[in-house]
Write a structure and sequence with these properties.
This protein is 8% helix and 56% strand. It has 134 residues and is mainly β. Keywords: Lipid-binding.
Length: 134
């Protein structure tokens, strides 16, 4: 199995602006469109901790696989309700958004990168964000 824990820095993305519009978060997240966030993923027993640093803001989320949890992101307003499961060499996170849509994030890990495939549930708009392992 590929190592999941570690630090990752954003390097590229595709269709993210359109994705933010589809999920109703464009205006809130607009200042972060050109950011290069650093994501740190760690594990303590059955708890996972995800720390996101972006534009001088830090958000920390702690969760257990298979349980609903409150998720914080520096680029979104409010707390999100999310649910994460393990799938192959990665994770799938489903998030219920205030706009009534569901965001699905499929995280894939390699020895050198983390790729996040995002899908908005109603229109099917997709985006990809790639991070290099630091």
């Amino acid at each position: 199995m590929v190592q999941v824990t570690g630090r990752y820095q954003y390097v590229s993305g595709e269709n993210f602006e359109e994705y933010l519009q589809a999920i109703g978060q464009y205006e809130t997240a607009k200042p972060f469109l050109n950011a290069q966030p650093i994501i740190e993923i760690s594990q303590n027993g059955d708890q996972w901790v995800v720390t996101i640093e972006s534009n001088g803001k830090t958000a920390v989320t702690t969760f257990k696989l298979g349980e609903e949890y409150d998720e914080n992101m520096p680029s979104f307003s409010g707390t999100l309700k999310s649910f994460t499961t393990k799938e192959g060499d990665g994770f799938v996170t489903e998030t219920k958004l205030a706009s009534g849509v569901k965001s699905i994030r499929n995280y894939k890990f390699t020895d050198t990168h983390m790729t996040v495939h995002l899908t908005e549930s109603k229109s099917g708009v997709k985006a990809t964000r790639t991070y290099k392992r630091l």
